[in-house]
Amino acid sequence: MPEIHRTPELDGELVHDWRELIDQDPEGSWFAGPDWVLAWWRTLGAGRGGEIAVWRGPDGRAEAVLPLAATRLRAHRKLPVEVPALTLLGTGPGAADHCGPAVRPHRRAEVAAWLAERSRRTTLWLPELDAAHTGLLPPGARPVTRSACPRADLADGPDRLGSRDFRAANRRARRRLAAAGVSFHWLPPGAADPALLDDLHRLHRLRREAVADGAGSFTADRLPPHRLLVRGAAPGRGPAFQLARHGEELVGVLYGFRWADRFAYYQTGWDPRWAAESLGTALVDAAIRNCAAEGVRTFDFLRGREPYKYRFGAIDRTDTGWLLPRGPGGALLSLKHRLRRDG
What we know:
alpha+beta; Aminopeptidase; 2 domains; 9 helices; 30% strand
């Protein structure tokens, strides 16, 4: 049986082991690791009942970590009916992708059996579950949502991404921006001040308002976990920023997470006055080049089928939301997803 932790205040050795599980897994995700999960639990998930199940090996080191949380799901947006459910800790508000546990291969069957027993009487909702973890699903779980998460392989270098015409267009954009006085600066993990998140939020809002689709999802109430993440970053691990400046003015910010040989591009914002000069694409191009120079092999664009991602040669990896309904409430949730799919 695993040991259960019901607080985000874990000892340093367990956090280290958990990080190592994620780093050594080729499909390990930042959002399944302790940095994201614990920062989320302390902020956006504050007050939410959580449990972190840990399986240890003979030497005392963690070999599997499964973070779970109690939640309540709306059966319908127009009805005040909420269904109690068990979900992955760190999911929900904040937009996490590639979620799931951190598990050594020889522990997978044991973790799967424990999860099946743990959810025997409770509806289980596993959103944005990475494809690598479908073997842990209890019998009866069904897929109800899917999200495309494009990622680019940097193994051959940034100058091999996308078509020849696209690469030529990026070179021309870099020259135009340089001639106009725009310079690019990379801040690796541990080099940024949390105040930079306020600039990102401001520029993100400006860009979203310019395209007439609202303020976007990166609202001020989503900032607290990111402040913790920036403060806790260390060389080679944590939040990194690609900046664009026009003189002393900050005109663009791209924000994401670096760990092992991977980078997850989380959010961006830039001054819409520079739209004609392709500043948004240039920010991504600069971030990819700096990541490649630091040894990153996978640039993950995360969820969304925006066309620009595929112009950089990204290929989809699909996250799936899985529902295991229990009781009348679970049946209502299952009906909601079925109606949404059929509609």
